[in-house]
Amino acid sequence: MSARAASPWLQPSAAGLIHRLAVLLIAVTLAGCGAGGLAPVDSRDGYGPAPPGYYRIRRGDTLSEIAERRRVRMATLAGWNNLRPPYAIYVGDLLRVKPPDGKSQPSGAVSSRRTASQSPPRAVRTSARTPAAVTGADAASSGIRWVWPAQGPVKQGFRDGDRTRQGVRIAVQEGAAVNAAADGTVVYSGSGLKGYGNLIIVKHNARYLSAYGFNRELIAREGDRVKRGERVAVAGRSANGEGLLHFEIRQNGVAVDPLRFLPSSR
Known about the structure:
Blueprint: H1 3-6, H2 14-31, E1 54-56, H3 63-70, H4 74-80, E2 94-96, H5 139-142, E3 154-156, E4 168-171, E5 177-179, E6 184-190, E7 198-203, E8 208-218, E9 225-226, E10 231-235, E11 244-251, E12 254-256
Antiparallel strand pairs: 1-2, 3-4, 4-11, 5-10, 6-7, 6-9, 7-8, 8-10, 8-11, 11-12
């Protein structure tokens, strides 16, 4: 891959570029294997293991994603935890993932029954506290006006420190428009980064880049100036055949949670 194609990911120095690119390629390879859902880990975040029947919420988790992994309907999971739209969940809280009192149907509230050996689990709350991902929280500080790159629900969220989840994956219809999330210049358009398929990278300013992977067709070419909301690619699908867009935002070369920059409305 040419130096021109590699440089957009990581900021300038030629000396550090090769090292950073090597790290990136390792991450990309792992990212290609990350579409299968949540990692089965409850205790790496400093909170300790979750009690039986509960899951400890981690950064990047969404209710729909947890429900899919646990093979439970999202509405059922919401009922067990007394959650209502927009189903906000919070890092560090405990989410009930087994039927309360052994019942197969949701009771509409988190069960208060606990064994003597269990510490009291905190219910998932919708009160005003920092959620797992605060949509748009960092948009103003970026100095960029962002929009969603595609229509569709978030299939998989970002997870800080997890190289397999350096962006979000949005469920889309294959053939749907993939749009630039903000004004910028296309600095990469190709398929040379393993794990991303046909990939577009847009540079927005000296600090921010966005990336759009798994495309069926690339429309924008390297050097093109694109406007926010302008179509840059045609959506494709992931290795498992699902219509999917992989979307990343990188700040100074480091992957950050895209939901913190994208607006709450689409």
